[in-house]
Amino acid sequence: MYLLLREGKIEEFNRRREEGQSCDLRHADLRGLDLRDLKAAGLDLGNSYLRQTDLRGLNLQETNLEGASINGAKISGTFFPKALSAEEITLSLVHGIRLRYR
């Protein structure tokens, strides 16, 4: 499943998840990918690297991002979990600090 994301096969990744295939994306290196069409609800992206990843328009409200880094990511229109403050998101976006939940 991880390789599908790395290869840009987001639709196939989403389809397989809908069919019940599991995936472990904790500690995943997803740097620089275009994930705009990813159905992220229920994913665990804890401690993953999302540096310079295109996350525009994603709904990440039901996605675990604890410990992830979004340095330089594109986040316009992205919904983040309520447990992440705007300050925390900004620190990660600008300085690469790992996201910490309240």
Short description:
By secondary structure, the chain is mainly α.
* Category by helix and strand content: mainly alpha
One letter per element, helices H and strands E, the order comes to HHH
Roughly what fraction of the amino acids lie in strands? Answer: under 5%
Gyration radius from CA atoms, angstroms: 12 Å
Overall morphology: globular
Query: For the report, how would you describe the main beta sheet?
Result: none
**In which range does the helix fraction lie?**
10-25%
Ends distance: 30 Å
According to DSSP, the number of beta strands is 0
Overall average residue pLDDT: 97
Organism: endosymbiont of Tevnia jerichonana
Protein name: Pentapeptide repeat protein
InterPro entries: 5peptide_repeat
How would you describe this structure to a colleague?
- The structure is a single chain.
- Helices cover 24% and strands 0% of the residues.
- The protein contains three helices and no strands.
- The termini are far apart.
- The radius of gyration is 12 Å and the shape is globular.
- It has one domain (24-102).
